[in-house]
Design a protein that fits this description.
18% helix; 2 helices; 39% strand; alpha+beta
Length: 142
């Protein structure tokens, strides 16, 4: 299977709603791209240029995405959020797909409704798009 790829549109209108953050009683999972960061006092540390969090406080799944890196030599910092309700499909990947689009990214293949493994591929694709092609994925669940 071909891996996912992502592109960033610096002219895209981003959309982030703080009401989608549900830390108090709604955290479901976090997908983070992890890379080495050796800047401070020669001590090896890690940073995460891409963080996608899912919140599921009830019947609606919320996603928030934060991205920092470089595209074509320019530093970018962007964020986006999304949500998905209803039933009969994977709400987590649908909310994540909306957050990714709302942060200004376009994926080669849409991930909406296809399962959480698609979220993992998307996070790594976004990391590669912002200058971190060798990022590792860290996933944590509530």
């Amino acid at each position: 299977m071909k891996t996912q790829s992502a592109t960033y549109d610096p002219k895209a209108k981003t959309k982030f709603s703080t009401s989608h953050r549900k830390e108090n009683g709604g955290f479901h999972a976090e997908y983070a791209a992890i890379v080495p960061d050796n800047y401070e006092h020669n001590h090896s540390k890690c940073r995460n240029p891409v963080t996608l969090r899912l919140y599921w406080p009830g019947t609606v799944c919320y996603a928030c995405l934060w991205v920092g890196g470089k595209v074509e030599g320019e530093e970018i910092y962007t964020s986006g959020s999304g949500n998905a309700g209803g039933g009969g499909y994977c709400k987590a990947s649908t909310a994540a797909g909306e957050a990714i689009r709302n942060a200004g990214f376009k994926l080669e293949r849409r991930i909406d409704g296809v399962g959480e493994s698609a979220i993992e591929e998307a996070v790594l694709a976004i990391a590669a798009a912002v200058g971190y092609p060798d990022a590792m994925l860290h996933v944590s669940h509530a």
